[in-house]
Amino acid sequence: MPEDFYLYIRGVTEVIPPGYTESGMRAYRHLVYLGASQMVEAHFPAIREQMGEEAWKALIQAFVRQSAWTSHYYGDLKHEFLTFLARETDSGHT
């Protein structure tokens, strides 16, 4: 069940896990996105400025959905974001 929770809040699935409400899960997803966005932007403000709001939002959503970050601390996202960008660049997605 915890895996279903994480898959939903990361945007991998749209299936609400049993025992949770849609509104509650949307709130969790938003908070994860917001936290990731703020922490990444704190380290890389020029990227957001250069990309524009829609492209930035898509990048952060892809990062949250696809990254392998396991730390419970948003402050640890810098290294994982750099790994994500390298992987995306190598695969031709950015």
TrEMBL record:
Instruction: Identify the domain of life.
Output: Bacteria
Decide whether keyword Nucleotidyltransferase is in the record. no
GO MF terms listed in the record are: DNA binding
What keywords were assigned to this record? DNA-binding
Family matches, as Pfam families: DUF2063
Q: Which InterPro entries match?
A: DUF2063 (IPR018640), DUF2063_N_sf (IPR044922)
Task: Note whether Membrane occurs among the keywords.
Answer: no
Domain Putative DNA-binding, which positions? Answer: 4-85
What protein is this chain from? DNA-binding domain-containing protein
Species name: Methylophilus luteus
